[in-house]
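Example record

One chain of 320 residues, shown exactly as stored in the release files.
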Amino acid sequence: MYEILKNLFFLLDPEVAHDLTLNQFSKNPKYLRKMFPAFTEHQEVLSEGLVWRNKLGLAAGFDKNGVALEFLDYLGFGAIELGTVTLKPQEGNEKPRIFRHQEELSLRNYLGFPCKGADFVKKKTKAYRGDASLGINIGKNKDTPLNKAADDYRELVKIFEEDADYLVINVSSPNTKDLRKLQDVEFMKEILSEVNDVREFEKPLYVKVSPDEDLKDFEAFVELLVLKNVQGIIATNTTVKKEWGRGGVSGEELKLKARKTQLKLLELTEKVKNFEIICAGGISGPEDIRLLEEKGASFFQIYTSFIYQGPSILKKLLTF
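Predicted structure tokens for this chain:
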């Protein structure tokens, strides 16, 4: 059934197809359950403060505003990560801004954090009662200057910490001008200091990183995060491939860069207590998870492989 639907939807503009899919997921979850069986063979994974019903989560970007939580929870993901959520509503970048690279089983997006804003998303997160853990990925508004970015993250943590099972600071998307500069140690110090001032519920906090950074810089970065009581890193965001055009690339074309970053971070944090690397990027088959598990990873996220393979990928990645 999914292959039939995918072939039809792939005839449409990618963003139109995505919006139609989310619309169906949000308005017809009971009907869709008859078409797509859920994954139910859960084996809980946990670390200090973080508990998923299984090791496979849905990465941020698929359901930015939390409109389809009921159906995504039904499918059987261990966690669902919303966002990126911004404090104020914003349209994002100009269209077209999602592109398929089907031969490479990859996607490229130049979305720029389109979001209905924290007030809208808060209503969704507050009402959520699913079994999948809820992650909330937060980012600064496009018009917020870098020297004021910490204020956005601080307010977003205040709004969402109560509802989230974990929070993610996104400073690594390539689609908002200069956002990746926030990965600089001095900016991160300021952001984390502001965020820690308002962390009332002690929910796990993660930072999502770029795969395009020099690997040698991660040692100091990890030291800072540990010092600032961050529980881990999501590795990685999308990559830049200039010859393809603007935007961040995900899927198989990201795999090599993501894997190098993930393995480096797993090596750096092997002996760090209560610090997790959630692996995202180019995960499409059991061999990807097997390799990362051998190096110490316990939590994984997918996005593009879910688009190309459909809900059956949960069983494929969780029962090998």
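Notes: The longest strand covers residues 79-85.
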